[in-house]
Specification:
Elements (H helix, E strand, L loop, with lengths): L7 H6 L2 H7 L10 H11 L12 H7 L4 H15 L3 H33 L5 E6 L2 E6 L8 E5 L7 E12 L2 H4 L5 E2 L17 E2 L5 E12 L5 H8 L9 H30 L4 H15 L4 H18 L2 E3 L2 H7 L4 E4 L11 E7 L2 E7 L6 E5 L2 E3 L5 H12 L4 E5 L2 E5 L2 H12 L4 H7 L2 E8 L4 E7 L7 E7 L1 H7 E6 L2 E4 L2 H16 L3 E10 L10 E10 L6 H10 L3 E5 L4 H11 L9 E3 L9 H9 L2 E3 L3 H13 L4 E5 L5 H6 L2 E5 L4 H6 L2 E3 L5 H40 L8 H11 L1 H8 L22 H27 L5 H19 L19 H19 L3 H5 L6 H11 L1 H11 L5
Parallel strand pairs: 9-23, 9-26, 19-22, 23-25, 24-25, 26-27, 27-28
Antiparallel strand pairs: 1-2, 1-3, 3-7, 4-5, 4-6, 4-7, 8-28, 10-11, 10-22, 11-12, 12-13, 14-15, 16-17, 17-18, 18-21, 19-20, 21-22
Helix pairs in contact: 4-6, 5-6, 5-10, 6-11, 6-25, 9-10, 9-11, 9-24, 10-25, 11-24, 11-26, 12-24, 13-14, 17-19, 24-26, 24-27, 26-29, 27-28, 27-31, 27-32, 28-29, 28-31
Length: 897
């Protein structure tokens, strides 16, 4: 029977042929689809068991861990001990209500995060039934023949059967900080993990080269799966925002415990009932500390993340949302972000002239024209060789299923494959005649790639195909291919080709140079003595929507900086077309100007530049650091493995959905639609979420301050208490939470993206917001105390009847107070609050709760409310509107936020 897995030591000791035989896999065709399904059924999904989310029981238990809840339970128990059965039962009922609210809101947040987690799925490239295809990594099985390229994340533990300068970063497993070179030779079965050079491991990134391997273990049978069994579950780290909110709650707790103790002491000193004052002080503590604050913040963040996901921006962590709203620099690459990322070869520039390539971007049908006349590409020696070089010096492949193209690989290499297909050159057929012996992977340092091919018809020698940046390839060439053969490459030739390269780049073309040479064996240096064949001009047109996005960024106070590995003229043209710069007036910096320690003048030019060309991954790190040193919040886009360090370094790393697994793993956000404009959507949502958090915090805190002042002032003046302990609890735990949640999930202001970004150092609650909290609280307390006084004096009410009027006034004032949370620049009637349907739904629900508090048998007895007559309702309604009316007036003159 075929084993469901092999250990790394067993597989490492086998030869390549033994691996193929042992796992019964064809070296050419891979597994069949049917066999793969059978093995998937036996081995299970290729997934690592993740840390489980909290269970419903755990979430419910967490609702009772609050210090305030414990204090409240103690008060309820004390009431039961002294015979106050109704009040004791009511206290525990309030605790139960709080637990239910907390339970369902947190469950909703957990489910939102689970839904977000399911949005991201890794893929793997495998050979099955003789075809190269992409499949979900979870469906990889033992025996699969998988293909690896620089930038891929290894989908499972694999025994290598082919390695072309392959390197992997195994720091997560071995602690080695440098990439490990890989090979295919068998090893001793005693080799340590760090010495296992012929095996690559699930979850490790390929940093260089290419290769193929046979999957030997999947899921929990992999090395990382074994490690995961030994890792204990860790507590989920709270986001900075949650930490600040919790810190605020703790400070408020100690402050209000002091206030509550003072109120209780004064009340007892003037002869009030001890138990009443103890319950009142505890109720004040509950009222002053908004227990729902962290939960409401989590709901706001989770809902915002879901909105972003619905708009194709997958945010990986809650803390990212907080940073998004203050982003003011976006460093973006060019290909696929500012441009469509669907390149096509438009022409080949050869010694004999220019040849135009026609046909669809992903169509194998097309024609070649010289001077407007169709030509047969196979009859032109230089053109034929240029096409073959482009097809063979590549890791891309293009297959057609049901007539639809299925490209795999980098856009440039796919474009070269398509151009070859238009001439009838299929990669597999070419490799049958020119089997590949060695690949020298693309190196950003030398800007070239080479492949060695056996030539059975040429005395057993090797033929080399080279492609790369024009300046690099021309430097390595000594001869040039012409229609009549080859000749020496003269200085005037170099000047001519350099000039032609610049002309095409100035038109926005991406230009590659193609070269070849013969070699005695595969150890020969690839980049010496080359024969120049020609230039391939490729076009990647700018995205149609990008210019509008750039304009929106400018209005939002966000600078867009292009950092590309492309040459200056091409980058300058694209920047001009999309609106980043003004063409020849663009502030352009070459990557090599980002030295290790630039002087002040150079730093100023660099940070003011809007286009940076020929930028290496290391130079991107320097660029990001310079902007961050200037107090900027930087978002960086990228899709390659070499972009991963910059994505980590940036405040917000943004990976493209089409990018490598390594880039997506390093990023804070993934744009699943590969559209730059989605960043603006995410920034807008980040600003709205922060605005909502600030809004509901102001609402909760000012409402609670109003309650504290109402009871505190009455106690200090030795007046009758206008609120009873259970009424305070009912307001805080039942009524307040619904308007706050409605504010937390609002759609926000329509023009929020038009405003400047927020300074990241700005606290959630600034001094001006605390001033507003105090004034709003004072207005609410004044209205409630006035209602209580008039109920006594004007209506002749006393005891519970008068308290009912102040209770109703406070409840209604808190409901109207939600409309004070509009922005100062918004209309009093048409604004983000009045346009929020959740606000109106919460008010409707709270209105039902108010009526229930007065008219529902059982609840009214517990709260000790008395049904008011029309004059009582009129008094409560009239005075409850005063904080709203005065608040709107003060907001209009700029005194309140």
């Amino acid at each position: 029977m075929i084993p469901d897995s092999l250990s790394r030591r067993e597989a490492g000791a086998m030869t390549v042929d033994q691996i193929y035989d042992g796992l019964e896999v064809s070296p050419d065709d891979g597994l069949s689809g049917g066999e793969a399904e059978l093995r998937l059924g036996r081995a299970g999904a290729n997934e690592i068991r993740q840390r489980r989310d909290r269970t419903a029981l755990q979430i419910l238990g967490d609702q009772f861990k609050s210090v305030i809840i414990l204090l409240l339970a103690a008060a309820g128990a004390a009431a039961l001990v002294i015979g106050e059965t109704v009040e004791g039962a009511a206290v525990f009922a309030v605790i139960a209500v709080n637990a239910v609210i907390g339970f369902f809101t947190e469950m909703r947040a957990v489910r939102s995060m689970q839904a977000l987690r399911r949005l991201g799925r890794a893929t793997a490239t495998v050979r099955r039934d003789g075809r190269t295809m992409k499949i979900p990594a979870s469906r990889v099985v033992p025996g699969d023949l998988a293909l690896l390229n620089s930038g891929d994340l290894v989908p499972a533990d694999m025994r290598l059967v082919e390695a072309n300068r392959l390197q992997a970063d195994e720091a997560a497993l071995t602690g080695e900080s440098v990439p490990v070179s890989k090979h295919v030779e068998p090893l001793s079965d005693e080799a340590a993990l760090a010495e296992q050079g012929n095996v690559v491991f699930k979850g490790t990134p390929i940093t260089r080269g290419s290769g193929r391997g046979v999957v030997i273990a999947t899921g929990m049978e992999t090395e990382i799966g074994h490690i995961s069994r030994l890792v204990e579950e860790a507590e989920e780290e709270k986001t900075p925002l949650e930490q600040r909110l919790n810190s605020l709650a703790r400070k408020l707790l100690w402050l209000t415990l002091g206030i509550a103790a003072a109120v209780a002491a004064v009340g007892v000193a003037v002869g009030r009932d001890l138990l009443l004052m103890v319950e009142t002080s505890i109720a004040l503590a509950v009222a002053s500390v908004p227990e729902g604050l962290p939960i409401t913040a989590t709901i706001a963040l989770a809902r915002g993340m879901k909105r972003m996901a619905d708009r194709n921006a997958l945010v990986t962590e809650l803390s990212t949302v907080e940073t998004l709203g203050s982003t003011n620099i976006v460093c973006t690459d060019k290909t696929g972000t500012l441009t469509e990322g669907r390149m096509s070869v438009r022409s080949y520039e050869l010694a004999g002239g220019s040849v135009e390539v026609r046909g669809g971007v992903l169509s194998s049908q097309g024609e070649f024209r010289r001077d407007g006349e169709p030509i047969d590409p196979r009859e032109s020696g230089p053109l034929s060789e240029a096409l073959v070089i482009g097809v063979l010096c590549s890791n891309a492949s293009v297959s057609f299923a049901d007539g639809e193209p299925d490209p795999v690989g980098e856009p440039i290499e796919v474009a070269l494959q398509i151009a070859g297909l238009k001439a009838g050159y299929e990669r597999e057929e070419l490799l049958d005649n020119l089997p590949e012996q060695r690949e020298v992977a693309f190196d950003p340092g030398v800007k070239m790639m080479a492949t060695y091919h056996a030539r059975a018809d040429d005395g057993g020698g090797l033929w080399m195909a080279v492609k790369g940046a024009p300046e690099a390839v021309l430097e390595a060439c000594t001869r040039i291919r012409t229609d009549g053969g080859t000749r020496s490459l003269e200085p005037r030739d170099r000047e001519r080709w350099d000039r032609r390269n610049r002309e095409m780049a100035r038109e926005g073309m991406r230009v590659l140079a193609l070269a070849s040479k013969t070699a005695e064996d595969a150890s020969e240096e690839p980049y010496e003595g080359l024969t120049f064949v020609g230039l391939a001009a490729l076009l990647d047109p700018p995205r149609k929507d990008v210019r509008g996005v750039i304009d929106t960024c400018r209005r939002a106070g966000i600078r867009v900086v292009m950092a590309t590995g492309d040459q200056e003229l091409t980058a300058r043209k694209v920047a001009e077309v999309v609106g980043i710069s003004g063409g020849d007036d663009a502030r352009v910096i070459r990557g090599d100007e980002l030295g290790d320690d630039p002087d002040a003048g150079s730093r100023k030019r660099i940070v003011e530049a809007n286009v940076l060309t020929r930028v290496s991954p290391e130079q991107k790190l320097v660029l990001i650091q310079m902007h961050q040193d200037g107090g900027n919040v930087v978002a960086m886009t990228g899709d390659g493995v070499n972009d991963a360090p910059a994505l980590k370094k940036a405040d917000i790393g943004v990976a493209m959905g089409r990018g490598t697994q390594v880039a997506r793993d390093a990023a804070d956000m993934v744009l699943q639609d590969n559209v730059l404009g989605t960043i603006i959507v995410a920034v807008e949502q980040g600003r709205i979420i922060f605005q909502n958090i600030r809004s509901f915090m102001t609402y909760l805190l000012s409402s609670n301050v109003g309650t504290i002042l109402t009871v505190g002032i009455a106690a200090l003046l030795n007046a009758p208490l206008p609120l009873l302990p259970l009424q305070i609890l009912f307001l805080n735990v039942v009524v307040d939470v619904f308007p706050a949640l409605a504010l937390g999930v609002g759609e926000g202001d329509e023009d929020v993206i038009e405003r400047p970004p927020r300074d990241p150092r700005t606290p959630v609650m600034e001094a001006r917001h605390w001033r507003s909290v105090s004034l709003y609280g004072l207005l609410i307390a004044a209205a409630v105390l006035a209602a209580f006084l008039l109920a006594h004096r004007a209506l002749g009410l006393a005891g519970d009847a008068a308290v009912t009027i102040s209770f109703l006034t406070l409840m209604l004032a808190k409901l109207w107070h939600v409309f004070n949370m509009r922005g100062k620049e918004q209309s009093a009637l048409l604004n983000a609050v009045t346009g929020n349907p959740f606000v109106w739904a919460s008010l409707g629900l709270c209105a039902v709760l108010i009526l229930a508090a007065v008219y529902l048998p059982g609840l009214s007895e517990v709260l000790r409310t008395v049904r008011p007559d029309p004059s009582g309702w009129g008094l409560a309604l009239g005075l409850s509107v005063v904080p709203l009316a005065v608040g709107q007036a003060l907001k209009g003159v700029g005194w309140l936020e």
